[in-house]
Amino acid sequence: AKLDEYHASVMSANWADYLVLVYSGPFWEAEFEKLTAAVQPYLHEDAVGKKFCTVQEMMDVLYQCEDVRDHLNELAELVTRASGFMGTGYAPGEKVENMDENAKLCAEAYDELLKKHPDFKPKIEQTVGHGLAVLRAKHKFKFGSMHRYFF
User: Fold this and answer.
1) What are the backbone angles phi and psi of residue 127, rounded to the nearest 5°?
2) What is the pLDDT of residue 150?
3) CA 72 to chain centre
4) Which residues, 6+ apart, have CB-to-CB distance to 32 below 8 Å?
């Protein structure tokens, strides 16, 4: 029951909202540690073993999505700063010289996540897919499901 509750709690959160992750993440990690210890004697039971594997995969996917989305957010922020104050060109920041390479690598990470973890497609779309769409609004590049986001 605790595994189900934990799984539901993490899966129902908005993974694309970094504040949710910042505020809830430490509590999820502490609870995951407790659950990992508590579930050890029951891993041989089919239902518990399968659910715990699902929870482990969920946490792995969460961390991977969070990493890629953070990188996408940073790239988008740098593009915005490079356009200068309020987009006027006044006092611009440095441009990212290898933006195409960064965007391509992020799109490849997105495709790899979808391929490796098809059960978590909605959460991958919510985080990485939307992050790619935001970056694409600022820098044009192609990725597999870009038209899903009306580009």
Assistant:
1) -95, -70
2) 62
3) 10
4) 6, 55, 59
